[in-house]
Structure formats: C-alpha cells, structure tokens
Amino acid sequence: MPSIRDHLQTLTDTVGAMRVLQKSGALDFGKPKELITSVKRSKTLGAPATIIMHGAEEYPDAPALTDERGTLTFAELQRNANALANDLLATGLTPGSVVGVLARDHRGLLTVLVASGLAGVRLAMMNTGFGKTQFAEVAERENVKAMLFDEEFIDLLDDLPADISRYLTWVDGNRPVPEGARTLEDIVRTGDTSTPPEPKEIGGLVILTSGTTGLPKGAARGRFSPFTSALILDRIPIPQHGTSVIVSPIFHSTGFALWGVSTALGNKTVVMRRFDAEKTLAAIAEHRADMLVAVPTMLHRMVALGPDVIGKYDLSSLKIIVIAGSALSPTLSESVQDAFGDVLYNLYGSTEVAVASVAQPKELRQAPGTVGRAPVSSHLALYDKDDKRITDANVHGRLFVKNGAPFEGYTDGRNKQIIDGYMSTGDMARFDDNGLMFIEGRDDDMIVSGGENVYPLEVENLLAEHPHVADVAVVGVEDDEFGTRLRAFIVRIPGADPQVEDIKAHVKSNLARYKVPRDVVFIEELPRNPTGKLVRRMLPTGPLT
User: Fold this and answer.
1) What's the CATH class of domain 76-224?
2) Per CATH, is 225-442 categorized as 3.40.50.12780?
C-alpha cells in the first residue's frame, strides 16, 4: 500500500511534469477545450492517433512527414489512416484484435501506427531484423490476426497461417503482389476516409525488446501517460514547428518515443527506409533540421566520413542529436561533439522502463560516455546482489528505475524484478562524485576471471580508443584455468593492420592485468540488430581453431 511519502512524491512528480510540458509547448493551458479533447482521445485512441488528429485540426496543411516519396501534411496523414482503419474493421477485425506491422521507416509505418489506434486494435511492432522462424514464433505468441508488411519481407510470411490477412505497406514493384494481399496505396486511394467510430477501449501497442539474448519479449503499452513526454522534454529542448530527422528505427522504443513527442510539438519528421551516413547529412542540410535521432553505430559511420565530407553540408540548423539504443563509448561521445558541436544528448532507457536518464552536451564534455541524470519523475536506485540499497559514489550496483511511465508486464505474463517500487533494468551502473550515472554493462555480462570481477564494457570502451579499432566487442568465454576469460572481437579501421599483441598491450598499459583479453579475434563486422545493439549470442565463444 502506498505510503504518505509515496503520495507526496507522486504529487511532486506530477506538478514537475506539468511544468515541463507547459514550458515546452506540449500542453497549452490557455486552450482548455483542446486540452480536454486530447486527454479524452488518448484514453481510447492512444498517443499516435491523438497526436495526428490534433495536428490535422490545428494545422492541417503543415507537413507531418517526408520520406522518399514526398511529403504528407497532417491532414493527409489523417485521411490515409482513416482509410486503413475503416478497411481493417470492414474485414472483420474487432477492437482488441492484434495486428502486426513489419515495415521500415516510411509513410506506411506511420499510417499503420495511427490507423491501429483509430480502429482500436492492438499493434505489435515487429523487428525488421527478424529471421523467418523468429518472426513466425512472435506472430503466433502475440496472436496476430492481420499482418501489414513491406514488399521486401514477403518471404518471412511463408510460415504464417493462411487465414491471416495481409497488407502491403510499401511496394517497390520488384515482385508481384501476393494473392489475397492488398496494398496500402490502393486502400488510401479508394477507401473510406471518414473518421471511424471511436473505440470504447484503447487497443494499445506491443513494442518488442531487442532480443539480443533470445526470442524478443513483447512489452505491452496501453495508455501513454503525459509523464512519458515529460521524461524526454525535461532534459532535451525539442523545438516546436521545426524539423526532425529520425534514422533510429521507429518500430523500437526510442525512435517511436522521439517521433511521438516531436510530432506532438508540430514538427515535421524526415525518415528514410535505409540508413546512409552521407544521405543523412544531406537530409539535415536540405530540410534545415533542428534534431537528429540516431543510434551509436549510425553516428560512428557519420563521423567516419571525415571533415571533408561533413563540411560539404550546411549543418548550422542542427541543435540536437539524440542518441540511444546501445552504449555510447567515451571515444564516440567526444568524436561526435568535435564533428558536429556540443549538441549531443545521450538518452538511456529501455522498452520496459521508458526514459531513465539523459546526459546533456555539457555533461558529456565533462564526463564522456555518461548517461547523465534522471529527468523529472524518474528515480534511480542501485542495489547489490543481496537487494540492499547502494548510496555511495563509484560503487557498482544493479540499476533499478521508478517513473511515471509504468511498464504493464510482458505479453507472456512475465515481469521484471521490483524492489521498493523500483524496476530492474538488467544493467549494472554507478554514480560518480558529481551524481552523473554510468552504465557498466548488463548484470549478466559480468564475468569472474581468476577470482576477479570484470565488466567487459570497460575493456570495450578502452579498446574503442585505439587508433586502429573501428568497432569492438568483448565477451567472456569458458577457461579451464581461470573459470572465465575475456575474448575481444576487433573490427579494424580500413587500411590498418593492428596485431594481437598491440591490442593486448593497449589494455595492459591502462587496466589491471586480469582485464587483458586472452583471445583477440579480428572480424569484418560485428553482429548488431537494427537498433545498434550487439547480439552477443552470435559471437563464437567456443574453442578457437
């Protein structure tokens, strides 16, 4: 039962969040009728549909999104979503049914996001990096009744039941439309664009976890609290009626959240189906973008273009780069700000806990690689292996988070460990003497080698500083003598030829001897998912031949 202290904290959080939302322009208390309408809609339609409906009413002719096929206004996106929602309902789907979407970032995906809310169906956002078996298993687990997908993913649907309705969200024209499938383009052109009847209950979303250690879990999100927007806007000053370039996948939490908050502020979103470093620079320059949303591997490729290529583009409009999805190394943190100015915001969170902390540009200059501080309504706590609270600086512990965007549990019925109202993130962290937080790696990544605790991420960050290392991963592997030893996988800088002993010597000169990798393996590319997270289970951990 909540204590008086808990109630006071909730009240303080609510007041603080409302102030942030008002200051940012996300809430306008001078227009109470519009505010009440949006709140009511969000309870039954969800955030994406509510955001686009509001934009279509307030600034219908303003651009909502631009992709490789042009620009759609808020009113056009609303009409397209109406047509799809009406068609989904006409096929016999009922509010509460689950539909899946497997699409890259383009108008089709955003139309589906809005239409699912209007129809009251639950939307499962599938990962574009799925293999056929994994895709079929997730679709079965989530009880998907209709699948909306891009043409390039046609083959993934082979193992789905024949009675699942099929819609093509993007057609390149390279393959014939499968029998029985319909295209979103045809539905938008010929369908009923009137506003569908408002559902009685919200359908909600299922956002999948990254699945770096196994089958992705489904994290259900029903009603989206305004706290979710405040968690972002408290530490990231997203402008109103500007332009955002989002190259982080929108099917995942970060891209989705930043798209929602930015669009709610009346911004145009520029998306691309496939990331290209130089094309991203060109898009920022062409659209005079205020904000870029990306994952670390993308920024690494942009920085690697070098000053001559970067200098070809006028990036003076860029005031914010939001990075999230995987760990930001200190080396990349400094390189990005050296290349683009002090505009980097490092967002740390997860599908389950939403936004836990954000590092602002000054903090990243002060402590490269930090994930910063908690925004309004987010509360952070460290616990040791015995579930006792850690309060001292520079002491590693398991990170737990409590905030105003509660997790509803996984769709398979499981949940995260909770202590004193704080939910486990699965990460290890520490706070420095200035209160800035650092992620030390996953709590199950820590290895014991020769009786010493080793966090692979520390070694990874150090090796990332090596002038001949383009990318690096460090994992623990079984060892007869030490129990576990470190193995480093190295991607060389083009043209460089570091040797095994060079890599080991670099670690030995900076860290304790027991942190030096016993194995060093040079590879062409590390296995990463679309959000940039390393898929460690795909790295060879058996005996080297």
Assistant:
1) alpha beta
2) yes
Tell me what pLDDT residue 504 has.
Answer: 93
Specify the CATH number for 445-538; select among 3.30.300.30, 3.40.50.360, 3.90.79.10, 3.40.50.12710.
Answer: 3.30.300.30
As a whole number of angstroms, the distance between CA 333 and CA 167 comes to: 41
Nearest alpha-carbon partner for 67 in 101, 104, 100, 102 = 104
pLDDT digits 0-9 by tens, 131-151: 888 888 888 988 899 999 999
Instruction: Convert the pLDDT of each residue in 28-86 to its tens digit.
Output: 877 888 878 888 888 899 999 999 999 999 999 999 999 999 999 999 999 999 999 99
* Residue of 76, 72, 78 lying closest to 54 (CA atoms): 78
**Cβ(446)–Cβ(458) under 8 Å?**
no
Give 340-379 pLDDT, tens digit per residue.
999 999 999 887 788 999 999 999 999 999 999 999 999 9
* Token code pair at residue 399: 């990170």
- Which pTM does this prediction carry? 0.87
Please give the C-alpha separations between residue 137 and each of 109, 144, 189, 333, in angstroms, as whole numbers: 22, 11, 34, 38
Q: Helical H runs in 218-340?
A: 226-233, 253-264, 277-287, 296-304, 306-310, 330-340
Single-letter residue type at 106: H
SS3 category, 454? strand
Question: What's the order of all strands across the beta sheet hosting 469-479?
Answer: 469-479, 483-492, 519-522
